[in-house]
Amino acid sequence: TILPFDNNFFITWLDGRNTVMEGMEGMDHHDGHHGSMSLRAAIIDAAGNKLNEWELDNKTCDCCQTTAAITDNGPIIVYRDRSDEEIRDMSIVRLINGQWTAPKAIHNDNWKIAGCPVNGPRVDSRGNNIAAAWFSAASDTAHVNVIFSNDGGATFGKAVQIDEGGAIGRVDIAILDDSSAMVSWMEGNMIKAAKVHSDGTLEPSIIIAASSETRSSGFPQMTRSGNQLIFAWTDDKEKNIKVAVLEL
To answer: Is 157 helix (H, G, I), strand (E, B) or coil?
Structure first.
């Protein structure tokens, strides 16, 4: 993720420099042991000079996408964390007055899974109002949740489940105003969207398009432009990108 920040650019990524294979000589690479992926962030200027770099979490889920936003208080990152017990729930870190906070769960799904689900979260901000969406399959039940914060991610309200029973995740979210957001996700092979309010009210979902459940169909994307929401996704059969526009 890359975002403009204080006349520079804020970047966050999953980093594999700690995943050094051990005992490689004479072994098949699948037999080696490796360390964990870490979460890192940096600030660079317009010329590409690195001004700061930080390691923010030394053990994260291997390949779930990270997501970031800029609040009035500073940058935040939401990502799928990974505990020693293989609990892979969503955590947040925040840059406050030049210092990063310790990782903190935004909601305790308690999803224990010994592998990466390749299904990262999405976050959007407006001032210090934050909305985040993510996928979980805790207790072998797949669902998509949305959660709100009105203090820059220091605290969060109650999670709102927005799926309709057949979620496969692949979420996106766009804040509409201080108390509502539009969330998109895949329900089977359908791309759906719904407006959700911070008080937990969920409006009826809208079918945006049919897609494919295959990995090659990727993750549908959504962004706001004026009074429109623009959706883009990969058509796995035609091997091209399709776009739809929703008037707000």
So the answer is: coil
Q: Residues 79, 67: contact at Cβ < 8 Å?
A: yes
Query: Using one digit for the tens of pLDDT, what is the confidence trace for 58-101?
Result: 999 999 999 999 999 999 999 999 999 999 999 999 999 999 99
Strand ordering across the sheet containing 240-247: 221-225, 228-235, 240-247
Question: What CA–CA distances, in Å, run from 153 to 94, 107, 122?
Answer: 8, 12, 14
The answer to whether the Cα torsion of 198, 200, 205, 208 is positive or negative is positive
Give tens-digit pLDDT for 32-52.
Answer: 446 899 999 999 999 999 999
Is the pTM higher than 0.85? The answer reads yes
Amino acid in the structure at residue 245:
V
Buried residues in 54-79 as b, exposed as e (16+ CB within 10 A): eebbeebbbebbbbbbebebbbbbbb
Residue 3 φ/ψ, nearest 5 degrees: -140, 145
Q: Phi and psi (nearest 5°) for 113? A: -150, 125
Amino acid at residue number 125: S
Give the C-alpha distances (Å, rounded to integers) separating 39 from 74, 112, 167: 17, 20, 27
CA-wise closest residue to 120 among 221, 230, 229: 221
How is residue 33 written in tokens? 């042991």
Provide the pairing of β-strand 122-126 with 104-105. unpaired
In sequence order, which residues have a C-beta less than 8 Å from that of residue 123 and are 6 or more positions away? 67, 68, 69, 76, 78, 130, 131, 132, 133, 173
Q: pLDDT, tens digit, for every residue of 131-189?
A: 999 999 999 999 999 999 999 999 999 999 999 999 999 999 999 999 999 999 999 99
